[in-house]
């Protein structure tokens, strides 16, 4: 657990980076063959990807959402980043209503996905300069920020290479740099280190730890237990679209140890995940539906 920050017991609403209240998101299954038996053998026409999720982040907190593929993590990130509209619930970002006034919160946040897109023929620096100007950042400032971010992420020597010549890990670092160009107050990181080599992974993790000292609050989704334990101040376990447990890693370990004869130090995060979900994260990895099989009725 990252314990560098101490929070006051009460935080004004306009200082709360993210306040998620009973958010639910359903998708219609395409075609009759996609529905599944529900209670009483009836066919269910909808898949509930996020089911009444609530949590409240603290300033400069790194809040981790742990879950397998298909648990609802990416859908939750898309709701929080105003890309899709939930069927129920509310989302407040620094006290502003993200659902009814999305334009008021978008300057405050940014997002990194596990599969970012770029202009592949352009260099890393050229991509950042292009997106920086698209974000409305002045030329000299966007160049300064771009070079600084690329240097902090260990890409100063690759800055002028075409994206096609960069490794998967280097491209993901460029995606992280691009998201931080706007100096967001809230960053949504959707499995940012998935598929990275160990060295690139450590660099990105170190950068995440550093930027919170600049006043950034970070929501991190991952299925990497070690990463979550290392980086996050608090953790939420997501299974079947629901948060089944929330707390610091120490609190969660102690809870699991209290129901056994083991000491908390002998309980790892995989043990905690199994205790609250009844499955290992590897067993829970099967995607229940592909995105192509689901339709968003709110779109």
Instruction: Round the Cα radius of gyration to an integer and report it.
Output: 20 Å
Q: Unreliable runs, pLDDT <50, ≥5 residues?
A: none
Strands of the largest sheet, in order across it?
8-9-10-5-11-12
The oligomeric state is: single chain
Helical fraction equals 25-40%
The best one-word shape is globular
Round the mean pLDDT to the nearest integer and report it: 87
In short:
This protein is α/β, with parallel strands linked by helices.
Structural notes for this entry:
The structure is a single chain. This protein has 299 residues and is α/β, with parallel strands linked by helices. It has helices spanning 73-80, 102-105, 124-134, 139-152, 168-180, 198-211, 225-231, 249-258, 269-277; strands at 19-29, 36-37, 43-44, 46-56, 62-66, 88-93, 96-97, 109-112, 186-190, 217-222, 234-239, 242-247, 294-295. A hairpin with a 5-residue loop joins strand 2 (36-37) and strand 3 (43-44). Helix 3 (124-134) crosses helix 4 (139-152), helix 3 (124-134) packs parallel to helix 5 and helix 8 (249-258) packs across helix 9 (269-277). The radius of gyration is 20 Å and the shape is globular.
